[in-house]
Design brief:
Elements: H1 14-34, H2 39-65, H3 78-89, H4 100-112, H5 123-137, H6 143-150, H7 154-171, H8 178-198, H9 200-208, H10 211-222, H11 230-251, H12 255-263, H13 266-277, H14 286-307, H15 313-328, H16 343-356, H17 361-364, E1 385-386, E2 394-395, H18 398-406, H19 411-423, H20 431-450, H21 452-466, E3 475-481, E4 489-494, H22 495-498, H23 502-509, E5 514-522, E6 525-533
Helix pairs in contact: 1-2, 1-3, 2-3, 3-5, 4-5, 4-6, 5-8, 7-8, 7-9, 8-9, 8-11, 10-11, 10-13, 11-14, 12-15, 13-14, 14-16, 20-21
Length: 535
């Protein structure tokens, strides 16, 4: 076996050789797995056996699995045996001595090809596949190779990932081993994160498969009260860290994901997860502490990212509702400033709440929704409704909705939004949010023009930096909504530098209004627009 050739066995039937060898290997691995051995003993045993096991696994693939000859071998389910053996022998310290073909070719083959006659793996085999992928995808040497192989069919890869999460949730009521559940969720959350960072095709396919909702459910599962051991606490903390990192990455793809995650009660489960992980300080070792530090960092970053999108009326309103519910149910009471492990999160949460309920008359009214019908008479004061087709545009009444559809103004947008939802892509800024920002801009223009001293301060700063303004190029009020406050950063700039539309500049020269150039955060990018505000 070490020489890489078939052993001399009296039988002339190759099926007997392979049957016996596979049965022996499966018995060996199962025996090692069931024994109460220390990690050091297991590592020592595996390290000695890996070259032989790798050789035989390659034989099984080349002579049975790949040629689809498994039904010929009646003694054993080769597919199940190979999956189990490969999974259990794939460890961080064994990758370098395993047959490269196992990781480069055969593991991806198993990923895409369940046993003949099956449309998918059973849960036990799925756990084995994901356990092997988890180890390989964290290896700096093998990560890119495996990701490139698995993204050859990004749709199937995304389907397999989501299906595995669905299967795990289906079996949770009958599974008594919480360690196994945490382990499974960790082995699926890690590839999801790695694909989001390194594989745009799979990341997009995952979003299309509603990965945001399913990862949010994984996060919610860890908020359930549990009796942690040192092992399960570490698994839970590591799993939460991967989930939060992924959701943080998704938020950076666009503001619509912020709104979506708030709908999945992200704020509530952020705090509940943090509370649960801090209930057993006596179980925290160095590895767990590192994972919990990552959880703390991701929690703070997510809160800051959400707050940076508060200029979107829909996001601000949904955040305010979530905060009110959290405070009403007293979920955030555990965030005591006396606990050094919670101090940074406590400070970030306190600031987050203060910003969400910012006591200023100017931004306070932007949470009032605007009707999506451009010709709305604004006579209805009833509850707003959303278009049933796109679930995007708000209307103040059925009359406005019907008129907007009959005029044809909404039809193309409705089709575009539905397609974006089907593709899992980020959504554009809604009409209601845009009108809210425009209303906010008008209030700031009014404030700075009426309060001439404030305008003069801005003008003085501009003159110091650029000299006297050119009368041919009207000045522009810059409103940059990027800070961790609802109020924007305000400045003055020449229209020659920041506005490309000659028509709007001409109207400003004629005195039709004041030029405003507003910038609003949209994930990692910005929405930028120039408009003329009437005096």
């Amino acid at each position: 076996m070490k020489r890489g050739s078939l052993p001399l066995i009296p039988s002339t039937d190759p099926k007997d050789v392979l049957n016996r060898s596979c049965t022996s290997l499966l018995a060996l691995v199962t025996g090692l797995h069931n024994q109460s051995l220390s990690l050091e003993d297991i590592a020592s045993s595996l390290f000695t056996l890996i070259p032989a096991i790798s050789f035989w696994l390659c034989l099984f693939f080349e002579h049975i699995i790949l040629p689809s000859r498994a039904p010929e071998f009646k003694c054993i389910d080769f597919h199940h045996a190979v999956v189990y053996i490969l999974s259990w022998t794939t460890k961080p310290n064994t990758l370098e001595i395993m047959e490269p073909k196992l990781l480069r070719d055969y593991l991806p083959f198993l990923w895409f090809h369940p046993p003949p006659g099956c449309t998918k793996y059973n849960l036990e085999d799925s756990r084995s596949i994901f356990a092997a992928v988890y180890i390989v995808i964290l290896s700096p040497e093998w990560m890119d190779i495996l990701i490139r192989r698995l993204e050859e069919d990004s749709t199937v890869t995304a389907n397999l990932i989501v299906q595995f999460i669905v299967d795990e949730f289906t079996h949770i009521p009958e599974e008594s081993d919480t360690r196994l559940i945490y382990q499974s969720f960790l082995t699926v959350a890690t590839p999801v994160l790695q694909f989001s960072l390194h594989s745009p095709p799979v990341h997009t396919a995952l979003l299309k498969n509603k990965s945001v909702r399913w990862i949010s459910r994984v996060l919610r599962f860890v908020t359930r009260p549990a009796r942690f051991t040192d092992v399960t606490l570490h698994l839970a903390a590591d799993c939460v860290s991967k989930c939060l990192f992924y959701l943080r990455k998704v938020i950076q793809d666009g503001h619509s994901y912020v709104y979506q995650l708030l709908g999945h009660d992200l704020l509530l489960y952020l705090l509940k997860v943090f509370r649960n992980l801090h209930t057993h300080p006596e179980l925290v070792n160095e590895e767990t502490k590192e994972a919990m530090n990552h959880v703390e960092d991701h929690t703070m970053n997510i809160l800051q990212l959400i707050a940076s999108h508060f200029a979107y009326a829909s996001i601000l309103k949904r955040s305010q509702k979530a905060i009110s519910k959290i405070q009403r149910d007293r979920v955030d009471l555990f965030l005591g400033p006396t606990d050094p492990g919670l101090k940074r999160v406590c400070e970030t949460w306190t600031k987050f709440v203060a910003v969400a309920f910012f006591p200023s008359d100017i931004p306070r009214s932007i949470t009032d929704p605007f009707c999506g019908h451009g010709q709305c008479p604004r006579t209805s004061a009833g509850k707003f409704m959303v278009c049933s087709g796109c679930q995007f545009t708000l209307y103040c009444s059925r009359i406005c909705q019907k008129e907007d559809w009959s005029s044809g103004d909404h039809r193309s947008l409705c089709t575009e939004i539905r397609q974006l939802r089907n593709d899992g892509g980020p959504l554009p800024m809604s009409f209601s949010d845009r009108r809210a920002v425009e209303s906010l801009n008008s209030r700031y223009v009014e404030y700075y023009k009426q309060g001439s001293s404030e305008w003069n301060k801005l003008l003085d700063r501009y003159i110091v930096a650029n000299g006297d303004p050119d009368p041919l190029w009207p000045l522009v009020l810059i409103l940059h909504y990027r800070a961790l406050l609802i109020e924007p950063e305000v400045g003055i700039e020449s229209s020659q530098r920041c506005i490309k539309d000659p028509e709007i500049i001409a109207k400003a020269r004629e005195g039709a209004g004041i030029l405003v150039y507003w910038i609003i955060v949209d994930g990692q990018s910005f929405v930028k627009k120039a408009e003329l505000v009437d005096l």
